Amino acid sequence: MGQDLLLGIDIGTYESKGVLTTPQGKVIAQATIAHKLLFPRAGWAEHDPELTWWGDFCNLSKQLLATESVSPSDIKGVGVSAIGPDVLPIDENFNPLRMGILYGVDTRAVEEIDELNAIYGEDTIFNATANTLSSQSTGPKILWIKKNEPEVYKKARWFVDATTFIVARLTSRVVVDHFSAGTMVPMYDPWKN
User: Fold this and answer.
1) In the CATH hierarchy, which top-level class contains the domain 5-181?
2) What b-and-e string marks burial along 11-24, b requiring 16 or more CB atoms within 10 Å of the CB?
3) How crowded is residue 35: how many other Cβ atoms within 10 Å of its Cβ?
């Protein structure tokens, strides 16, 4: 094609979407892939990060690049967004150590929410983070992993969300944008960052 193009991929709860556009926003190609949401127990909701998050990113990219007259060298920028907040422990090579624990639909960490509120106080958490703890919060889910899957917790180099996982795979760097970090209650202080 010989023109500058932008690749955008969004990993959703039940499907992922991809688009190729010009820098001016003209859509060149788009594609979707359906995927499974896993419910291994009542109150749990998970994704397979290799199959769903990374796999969908790769498959959508291949589909979009297969569009007639599009060359990989035409891609000048990549945008990634994904469901969240979610939690995935990864090792130093960005390999998942378990399935990704999804956002508020996964309620396994109710006891950990109560525990953190008792330790730090609901007002203290709210004043520090501008959020209260809920099933959306990543902190209680990390504590759940520490208590229930200690071997996974010990092996984890980072706890990331789906977007950060994909970006780490693409760039070999673990970086978190401020919006995603804001969901990492009670660990992120929006007033200092």
Assistant:
1) alpha beta
2) bbbeebbbbbbeee
3) 19
Residue 8's SS3 state is strand
What six digits make up the tokens of 138? 């990543």
Residues 6+ apart with CB under 8 A from 123: none
Tokens 């969004």 belong to 10
Residue ranges covered by each domain of the chain: 5-181
Q: Could you tell me if residue 82 is left (phi over 0), alpha (psi between -120 and 50 degrees) or otherwise beta?
A: beta
Q: Which amino acid is at 37?
A: L
Buried b (16+ CB within 10 A) or exposed e, 129-159: bebebebbbbbbbbbbbeeeeeeebeebeeb
Each residue's pLDDT tens digit, 155-183: 999 999 999 999 999 999 999 888 888 87
Provide the residue type at 94 as one letter: F
108-166 pLDDT per residue, tens:
999 999 999 999 999 999 988 888 999 999 999 999 999 999 999 999 999 999 999 99
CA distances (Å), origin 116, targets 105, 154, 166: 20, 20, 29
Rounded-to-5 percentages of helix, strand, coil across the chain: 35, 20, 40
CA trace torsion 6, 12, 15, 21 (10° rounding) = -10
pTM of the predicted model over 0.90: yes
